[in-house]
Every structure is written in structure tokens, then in C-alpha cells.
Automatic annotation (TrEMBL):
Keywords on record: Membrane, Transmembrane, Transmembrane helix
Keyword Transmembrane helix: yes
Pfam families: YflT (PF11181)
Domain (General stress protein 17M-like) ranges: 21-104
Record's protein name: Iron ABC transporter permease
Transmembrane spans: 70-92, 98-122
Organism lineage: Bacteria, Bacillati, Actinomycetota, Actinomycetes, Micrococcales
Length: 160
């Protein structure tokens, strides 16, 4: 049996929700605040959706990758793992010593160094930089199930 409405919550919607537009906002946090206000006013928020329009993928290059950066990153992440394992072992073993703790940190750092350098060696030819990727929308619309618009507008007017 198919869902009669894209607002039916049985699974992921297969279509973009259609309905009445409560408002159009320049940023997601603005739309989120409106939905939060409606939720606090006991509006059935399962009957609305925030739809991002005109999506754009933005990738900001943060820095060049190098052997030195890969080594430092591996040592630090491995040392954190070793620190965690050392603390865990110190709580579980009554005969645990500081030398064993230091060894756990050192082994973790060596393990992290090896894994990071191996990963860098494999991916080096394909991607020699680090970046942050994000999908942004030109605007965000709050779409309501048909017949809910007047109630939502009334609740927003009463609860600024």
C-alpha cells in the first residue's frame, strides 16, 4: 500500500512534500526557529517539512596534505587511543603501572602513525588536499499539509 501523502511518516518520502507554504527563510536556523515555536505551541509538527531549494554543493579547501601532516595527525590520534586504552587498563587492573600506561600511549601513537601514513600513501595521487564539504540551499520553505496553514499562522501570531 502506498502512502497517500508525502507527510505520512512510514519511511523516507519518495517525493518532495507538496502543500501550503508557511514561509520562506534565508537560512536553515531561521526555519528551524519557526518550527520550534510551532512545536512549543502544540502544533502537530509531523504535518510539516522544511524544504531546501536550489541546492549547491560547496567544498572549501582548507590545506594541502603532506607526509609531515599525515605523520603528526597519526601520532596524535593514535596517542589519544593509547591514552584511552591506558586509562581503561589502569581502572581494570590492580597491578597496572605508569610504565605500562606510557607503553600503551606509545604503542597507540605508533599504530596511528602507521595507519595514517599508509592511508596517505594510498590516497596521495587522487587527493592531495583536505577540505570541508557542505550542501547549502538558496532558501528554506516550511511546507504544511493542506488545511493546516491558518492554524499555524494563528499560533505564530499568538506566540511571538
Amino acid at each position: 500500500m502506498s502512502n497517500p501523502s508525502p507527510f505520512a511518516r512510514r519511511g523516507a518520502p519518495l517525493t518532495v512534500p507538496q502543500g501550503d507554504v508557511l514561509g520562506t527563510y534565508d537560512s536553515y536556523p531561521e526555519a528551524q526557529k519557526v518550527v520550534d515555536r510551532l512545536a512549543k505551541a502544540d502544533f502537530p509538527i509531523a504535518k510539516l517539512a522544511i524544504v531546501g531549494n536550489n541546492l549547491t554543493s560547496v567544498e572549501i579547501v582548507t590545506r594541502k596534505r603532506s607526509w609531515n601532516r599525515a605523520a603528526l595527525s597519526g601520532i596524535l590520534s593514535g596517542a589519544w587511543l593509547g591514552l584511552f586504552i591506558g586509562l581503561l587498563l589502569s581502572f581494570l587492573s590492580p597491578t597496572f603501572t605508569w610504565q605500562l600506561f606510557a607503553a600503551a600511549v606509545f604503542i597507540g601513537a605508533a599504530f596511528g602513525l602507521f595507519l595514517q601514513l599508509a592511508g596517505y600513501a594510498v590516497s596521495r595521487r587522487n587527493r592531495d588536499f583536505e577540505s570541508i564539504a557542505q550542501v547549502l540551499a538558496a532558501n528554506y520553505q516550511i511546507i504544511l499539509e493542506p488545511g493546516q496553514l491558518a492554524r499555524a499562522q494563528e499560533l505564530l501570531a499568538r506566540n511571538p
